[in-house]
Every structure is written in structure tokens, then in C-alpha cells.
Design a protein that fits this description.
By secondary structure, the chain is an alpha+beta fold. It contains six helices and eight strands. Strands 1-2-3-4-5 form a five-stranded antiparallel β-sheet. A three-stranded antiparallel β-sheet has the order 6-7-8. Helix 2 packs antiparallel against helix 3. The longest helix has about 35 residues. It is elongated, with a radius of gyration of 23 Å.
């Protein structure tokens, strides 16, 4: 008896995902997830092309504004034109910076998530810059797969981990949110917890949910 086509397709997705995301069962118990920077080449190319197009438009507007102001015969007219162009150029500059950050993160980010011995260790690297988060499982109050981007009809998901903290920060003491309806989010804010992206850019909801189930099983979590 052959397995259903949907089961075969999901198994193929998992095999392809494991070629991109290395999932290692540790000898002493637990799981290690390795997410190299070389994953999701199609998403990287789309992001880069969008950045290049936006940068070309931005450069075109800068050249046009500069040329236009040089042709004006009066100083007051040049100052007026400068004020007119200032806001759109500033907005496009800020959007360009966001595009550059997103594109750089897509190409350079690699990470490891190690779930074992009642804690989750997340190691995120951008070339030679490394950041480590060590989270006791007892402090985790929610894990979820959240859609972050959609590229060419392909959805990419992050595994988010919500934790409690020891005390809220000064910002939330001065400006406590009053319209948060989600109880988990209120608990995170009250205790000064964090909302951490443990794993990023997992291709497809089915694969993200499967990775999430493996993470929960390794940490003995049901939420």
C-alpha cells in the first residue's frame, strides 16, 4: 500500500528543508538546528533585485533634483527647490536603509538553535559578529511559527519564542500599554520578557510547523 501523495510531498519537503536546515539529534538527548546563510537563494535574489531597482530610482531622483537646482538662476529658487525635494529624498533614503539592512540580513545571517537539558540556546551570526541567547525552558510561555515574508507566492516563517523576564524595563514603566488584549503578551510586558526569533526564513508553513513540533518536543513544551 503506497502512502498518500500529500504524505510523500511533505516528506520530500522535509528532505529538501534538511538540506538547507541541518537537524541533528544529539546523543544525550535534545536537538540542534543549524540554519546556514546559504539557504533560500531565490528569496535572496528577489530581495537583492528589489533593492537594486529602488536604489536606481533613488539615484535617479537625486540626479534629477541636483541638475534641476543647478539650472535655477536665483539663490532663493534653489533654496525653495531644496525644501521641496528634502522630504521625498529623506523618506526614500530611510526606505533604502531598511532595504539594505533586510538584504544584508538575508545574505549574511546564519544561526544555530540547540534545545536540550531544559534550555534553548540560540546563536546568531552575521559574518564575524555573534549573539548568544540562553533561555531556560521554564521561562518560555509561547512558541509559534509566524509568517514574516512572502516572495513569489512562497511564504517564509520564523519560529518565535516568547519569554518572561525578571522585571519590566523603564520604558514600559513610564508608558504601560493599556490596550494589549493577548494575555501572553501582557505577561511578557509585565515581567520584562522578550519576543525572540529563534529561527528565521523557514520555507513553507508545513515545514515551519514540523520544525516547531521538533523544538517543542525537545523542550517538553506543549505551547
Amino acid at each position: 500500500m503506497q502512502p498518500p501523495a500529500s504524505s510523500v510531498e511533505l516528506n520530500l519537503q522535509r528532505e529538501l528543508a534538511q538540506a538547507r536546515i541541518q537537524i541533528i539529534n544529539l546523543p544525550g538527548g535534545g536537538i540542534e538546528f543549524i540554519l546556514p546563510a546559504t539557504r533560500n537563494f531565490g528569496e535572496k535574489m528577489v530581495t537583492t533585485i528589489l533593492l537594486a531597482l529602488f536604489a536606481a530610482c533613488f539615484a535617479g531622483i537625486i540626479c534629477f533634483a541636483t541638475s534641476f537646482m543647478r539650472e535655477l538662476p536665483w539663490t532663493w529658487a534653489r533654496l525653495l527647490a531644496m525644501n521641496i525635494f528634502f522630504y521625498p529624498v529623506t523618506v526614500m533614503g530611510l526606505v533604502s536603509m531598511v532595504f539594505v539592512i533586510v538584504c544584508a540580513d538575508t545574505w549574511l545571517r546564519s544561526s544555530r538553535a540547540l534545545a536540550a537539558a531544559g534550555e534553548l540556546q540560540i546563536v546568531t551570526c552575521w559574518l564575524f559578529v555573534k549573539h548568544i541567547d540562553v533561555i531556560p525552558a521554564a521561562k518560555i510561555i509561547r512558541t509559534r511559527a509566524a509568517n514574516n515574508t512572502t516572495t513569489s507566492d512562497t511564504k517564509y516563517y520564523d519560529i518565535e519564542v516568547v519569554t518572561t523576564g525578571e522585571k519590566p524595563g523603564w520604558f514600559f514603566k513610564l508608558f504601560p500599554p493599556t490596550n494589549v488584549k493577548d494575555e501572553i503578551e501582557r505577561q511578557r510586558i509585565r515581567t520584562g520578557g522578550k519576543d525572540i526569533r529563534a529561527m528565521t526564513n523557514i520555507q513553507g508553513q508545513a515545514e515551519a510547523e514540523w520544525v516547531l513540533s521538533q523544538l517543542r518536543e525537545a523542550l517538553n513544551l506543549t505551547y
